[in-house]
Amino acid sequence: MPEEPFDDRTMPLPADPWRTQHGPAPTVHLGGPTAYLGDPDRTTHLAGPGATSPAPHPDGSEPTIRTQAELRFGPGVPVTPVAAPAWPETAPARRRPWGRRLVSLVSGLLTLALVVVVGFYVWQRLSPIAVESVTVAVPKPAGTRCDVTVDVVATVRTNGKAGVIRYQWFRSDAAPGGILTERVGRGQRTATLTLRWTFAGVGTATETATVNIIEPSPVQAGTKVAYRCRRG
């Protein structure tokens, strides 16, 4: 039986299956940049499409396969920072033409004037009557006439609003008179209240007549009334 030829070439050591688990991970090259997996002494290149696998190295190390891109994995590998998004550019404010700005200004002024007019009209319509002043006088005094009736006139000035004036007369020779009313129309700024006072007999007397405004606000005003009758 012939003897088999003896091959005295040194066989490479078998790969340790636990080396990648207990030791640093190898580096994988995916074509281009290198992807490190923990062990800088061990590199594996994976070829891209159409690439051929190179022959193993004479020293028994693993072949290198390259691809189109390089990926890096493992601790200590710098990470490429993500680019921050660009801030959106603010569009410049558009300025309205002078014509439109002028029209807007005039429109605003007209609206304001209309609001003022309407407000004044409503205030005129809704505001109540008010007494501004009261004066009392005797237009035709009795003089030296006997048995005479004189008119005592109270002039009431108002704010021109419509309403009712409630009043009464006080005479110095009698009890207070009853409460009377005088209606005033819109725009009427003067109201006349008259007291007819009759004197009789011979002699001289000086009396006082006072008008007492009750509504819209309490106001009083008076005057002297003289009587002189000489017979004989």
Describe the protein in words.
The chain crosses the membrane at residues 102-123. The structure is a single chain. With 232 residues, the protein is an alpha+beta fold. The protein has helices at 19-22, 98-126; strands at residues 27-29, 34-35, 43-45, 131-137, 148-158, 163-171, 180-184, 190-199, 203-215, 219-229. It is built from two helices and ten strands.
Summary tags:
232 residues; alpha+beta; Immunoglobulin-like; three-stranded mixed sheet; 14% helix; rod-shaped
Show the helix and strand layout.
Layout: H1 19-22, E1 27-29, E2 34-35, E3 43-45, H2 98-126, E4 131-137, E5 148-158, E6 163-171, E7 180-184, E8 190-199, E9 203-215, E10 219-229
Parallel strand pairs: 1-3
Antiparallel strand pairs: 1-2, 4-5, 5-8, 6-7, 6-9, 9-10
